[in-house]
Amino acid sequence: MHSGLRLLRGTLAAATIAGAVALASPRVLAIALGTPDVPIVAAPVSDVVSVGMTVADMDRAVDFYTRVLPFRKIYESEASGRAWEQLHGVFGARVRVVGLQLGDERLELTEYLAPRGRPMPADTRGNDRWFQHVAIIVRDMDRAYAHLRAHGVAHASTAPQRLPDWNPGAGGIQAFYFRDPDGHFLEVLAFPPGKGDPKWRRAGDDLFLGLDHTAIVVADTDRSLGFYRDTLGLRIAGEGENYGVEQEHLNNVFGVRLRITTLRAASGTGVELLDYRAPRDGRDAPTDLRANDIAHWQITMRAAAVAPLLRPSPLFSLVSPDVTALDTPALAFAEALLVRDPDRHAVRVVR
After folding, report:
1. Which of 108, 218, 273, 341 could potentially form a cystine with 52 if both were Cys, beta carbons 3.0 to 4.6 Å apart?
2. Residue 8: its H or E element
C-alpha cells in the first residue's frame, strides 16, 4: 500500500476513534477499551419480580396484608439447607416464605424459623439509610385513610399530605406513611389526573390497586446510580426535589429537602432513591445487618445471567459467596445471588 494512503487511513481511523471516545458513555468506553475499573452493565435486569421483607410472625403478617390490606396469597414454601444458607448468608437458616400479590405486583414475606434475627430498631427514622418502604396506589385517599384508621394502623406520617402545586413533578399527589405489625414502613399514594402510570386510572371499584415502587434512602444518588443504572441497567424514569411542610409531615423528618430519583426496569415495581440533602443526620445501616433481621428488605430482580456480578466492584458487596442453585418451584427461579448496594440495601438477582 502507498505510504501516503496508509497515513491518510490511519489519520481517519484515529479521528473516528477520537470522536467515538468523545461521545461515548463510561459504560461504552469500558466495553470498547477493556477498562475494568469503569462500571458497566454487568447483569442487565429485565424485570423487578418482587419486593420482600423479613417478618417475625408469618401468620400475623399474612393476616395484616390480606385482611387490613387486600393482598392475596399466591404461594407458600418452607425451606432449609445449604443453598438457603449460602444465598442469604444466614447459617442454619430455616425459612417460611409467602408470596402475596396486589394488582400486577408481588410482595414476598420471609419468616426465619431459625435462627431468629433482631427486631426493627424502635427509633428508626425516615432518613436512616436502612429505611425502605413500598408505595401502594389507592383510588381515593380519603377512603383509604379511613379504612386504615378503622383497622388501627400505626401512623408514620401525621396525616395524609397533598404535595403542593408549585412542585411540577409531585404537585397534587397525596400520600401517607404507616407501619405494619413488625414496624416496616408502608405508603399509600394517590395520583392526580395526568400523573403516574396510566394503569392506575383504569376503571374499577378496587380501592387498593398495586405497588408503584419501593423507596430506599441513599447517601449519594450518583453513587447509587452506579449500581442500579450502570450495573443493573435500570433506566431513570423521573427526577425531582421535594421540600416544605407537607414533605416534613409525610416523612416525619423536620427540615427535609429530598432529592428523588425513580428507576425502572422494563416491567415490575419501580425503585425510588431518596437522597436527604437535609437534614444529613440519617444513620448508616448496621454493618452486621443480616437477612433474618426484621429491618432486612430485598428487591428481587430478574437477569439473563447472574454470574457477572461475582466480578469485584466498589459499587456493591456480595452476601452470597457464589451463585446459588435452588430447587423451590414456587419461587420461579433456578439460581440467585444476594448483594448489597452502597448503602447496604439488599438486591437478589435471579435467573
Report:
1. 108
2. helix 3-23
